[in-house]
Amino acid sequence: MPASAPTIVATSMAGFASRGRGPYDWRPAPVFDLAFSLADARDRPRLCYLGTATGDDPVRLAGVYGAFAGSAVQVSHLSLFTMPTVPDVRSHLLAQDVVWVGGGSVANLLALWRLHGLDEIFREVWEAGVVLGGVSAGSLCWHVGGTTDSFGPELRPVTNGLRLIPTSNGVHYDSEEQRRPLYHQLVADGTLPGGHATDDGVGLVYRGTELVEVVADRPDAAAYRVERGPDGSVVETRLEPRRLS
Question: For residue 44, is pLDDT > 70?
């Protein structure tokens, strides 16, 4: 059953946490329960993972399957290297309850998605009520743009996101020192429209294009509304999250 409205969960959350037996021995974080709830799919939710931003790394992909092993979650994946792993990308994505996009290079992700027509497909999938979510690159991609290290260690703007959410997005706001000042600069000079930023562990829930909730999986983290003021300065407003458990 699809979500009651087009829904996006855009985060700086890891999504997965270590069980302590190795770097990719994962368990799912609480954000997935939130996404399944938003999709009204609590019993046998269908989840498709996209790891485009890390080149469809098979080790990470195995970690995702392992995280949900033995659960009721029906996991699938869409990889684009060296060819799409499903015969009909559109039909596969439309059949999901939740699509989760991993972090990595948002610039490479967007280029590949457009090459394969996923920019148009994802708009249809979103409008059909499949919950779209992700972390870092998987958060930026749904917006107009934000700041990225896709081009090197010096952060640069990305402005060619899918624009399902017609605002900008700042990720890893409290953990990477270049993020906040560059995001402020880009909003101030008009390179990016105003938008929302997230500390690590924080997510934004959108219904349609409206931000309806901020959530967190750790204490002392927040989201921020970042806007250009009438005098060209930047106004930042802290938004306190609801803690997930």
Answer: yes
Q: Catalytic residue positions?
A: 136, 172
Alpha carbon distance 66, 21 (integer Å): 12
User: N- to C-terminal Cα distance for the chain?
Assistant: 24
- Is pTM beyond 0.85? Reply is yes
Q: Cβ distance 137 to 149 under 8 Å?
A: no
Pairing of strands 234-239, 223-228: antiparallel
Q: At what angle do helices 106-115 and 118-127 cross, to 10 degrees?
A: 90
Quick: pLDDT tens for 20-30.
888 889 999 99
Residues 119-134 pLDDT 10s: 999 999 999 999 999 9
Q: How far from the centroid of its chain's Cα atoms is residue 60's Cα?
A: 16
Q: Is the pLDDT at 169 greater than 90, yes or no?
A: yes
The two three-digit tokens of residue 27, written as one number = 């368990």
Sheet holding 145-148, edge to edge: 156-158, 145-148, 168-170, 195-198, 223-228, 234-239
